[in-house]
Amino acid sequence: MEVGYCNRKKTDICEGVCDNEYGSKSVLSMSRLKCALRGFDLRALLILLIGVPILIFVIYVHGQKVTYFLRPIWEKPPKPFTILPHYYHEINELDILDIRWHELSPYVSEFVLLESNSTFTGIKKDLHFKENRQRFEFAESRLTYGMIGGRFVKGENPFVEESYQRVALDQLIKIAGITDDDLLIMSDVDEIPSGHTINLLRWCDDIPEILHLQLRNYLYSFQFLLDDKSWRASVHRYRAGKTRYAHFRQTDELLADSGWHCSFCFRYINDFIFKMKAYSHVDRIRFKYFLNPKRIQHVICQGSDLFDMIPEEYTFQEIIAKLGPIPSTYSAVHLPAYLLEQIDRYRYLLPGHCLREKWVSRNYSLHNDLRPKDIAGRCPTGEHPALSGLYLIRLADVVE
Ligand SMILES: *[C@@H]1O[C@H](CO)[C@@H](O)[C@H](O)[C@H]1NC(C)=O
Ligand SMILES: *[C@@H]1O[C@H](CO)[C@@H](O)[C@H](O)[C@H]1NC(C)=O
Question: Which of 157, 96, 78 is closest to 121 using CA atoms?
């Protein structure tokens, strides 16, 4: 055996080793080692010296991507009834709120809104709604508004502040006068159930006690349709003492295609920056230039990822399918009705209008000059002005 092995590998240098058939075992293996080291040429050493640092650098830069890509190995899809974390909303989303309340207004008897001057992470936050309450005049008679003061405890788990707010919200729902068998919609501001979904549920007998709503997932605006996998929003038949505000999986039932979920659908670049710095995302800002307004604007128009991350999915097939920018949709069909009625005001949410305003303005009375116009009056030919692309030129002056 040994001899045969040596014969196959025999070189001039190693001849001595292989010929030494009668040497002791240890001498033999030492010689083999030397032989192997000599075979190791300079080129391989160079490649090693240059290659390893490059590899380390690549892993440093793309480390998070690598781990996310390998997610199917280290993480299995959630088991039924696993409690999933709440999606935080800490910023100015009055536009989406306006669209949402108008969508639901014909079918909803009571609006409940709780506002805090603190984020879940204990950062001071403006009372956006309170400051702009006059904008929601149409809902005023049906609105139960509550304000809760943050506790501003430093370094505390955000979950604690969140649970305080949730308890306050349960109280507020009671104050609003809810009774058993009323339908209660639980969802974040950026989750918009469609009016006809809620109307359907109002008229159906014997709907499930709890029903999740499947929403179309959009990113940045209604131009980038990601998938239809949003499910956190839910509708409950209210049971006193039993129903609690929650935003995790509570049942297996999901009502198909029941609305829209628009993530990161902000008007101002500064709102993107605030959100990126907010608690649940802060570890993803690996480089300072991620927060550069120009870069953010570019990413918004491309439909790519703000944190340069790999899609969070549970199978390789889905990860690969979602790599790269989200393809644009050019359809404004089946979107919230109020958005299409107010195209001047909400142009940035429509396909083909990705450019955002750079200025920070928390004061929406500034926008009162953007009065609603009658679409039919302005578009006698039936052409949809929101999709004409003309505003790209005007707004380009605003964004550096
Ligand atoms: C937050 O609101 C509470 C209750 O109104 C108030 O006492 C507190 O001073 C506010 N905190 C900040 C930082 O605005
Ligand atoms: C908002 O604008 C109105 C009128 O333009 C002004 O009176 C008010 O002080 C502004 N509020 C803030 C918080 O800037």
Answer: 157
